[in-house]
Amino acid sequence: MRVLVTGASGFLGSHLLESLRAAGHEPVAAVRQSSDTTFIDAHGFEKRVVDFRAPHDDLVAALAGIDAVVHSAGGGKVTSLAEMEALNVAPTEKLWAAMAQQKTPRAVLVSSLAAVGPSQKGRPHDDDSAPRPASRYGLSKHKAEAVVRGYKDQVHTVIVRPPALFGPRDSRIVPVLEMARRGVVLDVGPRKMAICSGRDTADGIVALLDAPTTSGDAFFVEQGVSTSIPELARGFARAMGRRDPWAVPVPRPALWTLAATLEAVTCLVRGKSPFNRDKLRDAAPYVECNGQRLRDVAGWTPRDLETCFAETVAWHAQA
Ligand SMILES: NC(=O)c1ccc[n+]([C@@H]2O[C@H](COP(=O)([O-])OP(=O)(O)OC[C@H]3O[C@@H](n4cnc5c(N)ncnc54)[C@H](OP(=O)(O)O)[C@@H]3O)[C@@H](O)[C@H]2O)c1
Asked: Which residue pairs, CB below 8 angstroms and at least 24 apart, start in 304-310?
């Protein structure tokens, strides 16, 4: 299949390109005029400029010859609900409208566990969990899911909801790697959270493209092990051959103050902070999900966590 990957210049997008190629598909990287395409060019991936602000007919034309689209563009690096919707909902609406017209056969929406929201102690979300997003980001992803379900009879669409991701080329995991290296980790997150490596998430998404799915279905993807920030740092430290780092708990009010300060500073310099108050809304004590259905339907199995830690540490050492 010729598969267009939006957000191809991002962390997950880079893994999607590799996974698609490894599975024998022809990936096409959808990028913006301003995107950093160093990775895409270095690995010889075909690229195509796709602008979600372009007129409908231009978007339809950009989908010519494409058998499937994986829509990974988006994220949570903005703060207001309007910005979240402009990033995660509006492009989704335009893309699915264009796919419906172009009669693109298949699509995957990369949503998020945040679209369903935090879980309860000992009860990871499963596919029947009712969505209760806690953050603006989660709400925007929930809305994007509703958008694509509106097109499910025109474009065969599945939704994938990753948890916190990590792996090579993920700049957001670098602070945890650095803390693991220095031997002290700030415990700033949930007690139990699902995680998945970028490569395993991409492999799961690619496996779903060929799987017998029902249009409109949503799948969680996860590594099979719940963790916490200190446990993650411990895993990285062991992969580095270092001692287990000390975990220093950070009280919630201090985290809110830090997030608000970072937001104010990044707003002043017109930047985007990867850590903000909206992220904290999702960092409840339990943020777990069960990805068994993806394994059953797509025949996909995640790699073991130690392998993923080792490759992340190796990438960080070279970066
Ligand atoms: N990383 C995680 O932990 C995680 C967890 C759950 C779900 N997700 C979802 O997975 C997807 C990929 O995340 P990621 O971690 O790979 O994010 P990322 O590294 O920040 O990459 C985001 C990608 O989206 C593109 N993009 C952003 N705004 C755009 C716009 N207005 N028009 C076109 N492209 C735009 C970026 O293009 P430029 O390079 O041009 O900026 C980049 O390619 C997102 O939808 C995110 O919500 C991520």
From this structure: 305/223, 305/225, 305/227, 305/235, 306/235, 306/238, 306/239, 308/166, 308/167, 308/197, 308/199, 308/200, 308/223, 309/235, 309/236, 309/238, 309/239, 310/239
